């Protein structure tokens, strides 16, 4: 894989040319950035920017004012190759809080190892209704230790309004959900995105996560996507590398400062 070329394609398809990731969300381009305004309880943030040392600080301030006027918190999704090179420092100086850094990893179909199978006694169930969404959300709450209500609402909305853009799956041991994940497939892009792969304690390290990645990869290939992308934690990166993913850059969500509306 030619990393520089694929990263440029990713920036063009998924960031500069971003499309809304859920029903009711919208994409806006202003002040040198591309931003998403999420639907109610949906994700809002800056996806891409074209800034330099002379424009960065005012662009950051403009986004803080804009989202404050909407009464919304937001994320500035910073990638390791974004300019200016000290953009992270500037965001911190403006009151943003960085969350843990992850690695943008991308795999090209045809170069992936997709022979992973679910462990004995485990089956994969496609998620198509509210009961399935509840299982996904409950697994995520257990696996990640945080509230999953926003994800639950967004997944329900996607399945109702745009079911062709999302694939969700839950792994069951008997009748107990033990792992879950989803994939977004936005029309007009070359990248399908993996999100939210989580496994409950007691089932980790037994191949369930690997099987969920392989399952979603096969679905994306059937739909004609060329690449698969994921923001990988340090725990998932070794598994993804064995499946054929390659690291291209880092990504860090910067959470906005709380600013009174009208600032």
From TrEMBL:
Q: What is its EC number?
A: 2.3.-.-
Could you state a single Gene Ontology molecular function term?
Answer: acyltransferase activity
Tell me which UniProt keywords the record has, alphabetically: Acyltransferase, Transferase
Q: Which InterPro entries match?
A: Acyl_CoA_acyltransferase (IPR016181), GNAT_dom (IPR000182)
Q: Where is the N-acetyltransferase domain?
A: 122-263
**What sort of enzyme, by top EC class, is this?**
transferase
Pfam annotation, one family:
Acetyltransf_1
Specify whether Transferase is a keyword of the entry: yes
Protein name from the UniProt record: GNAT family N-acetyltransferase
- Species name: Streptomyces bluensis
* Taxon lineage: Bacteria, Bacillati, Actinomycetota, Actinomycetes, Kitasatosporales
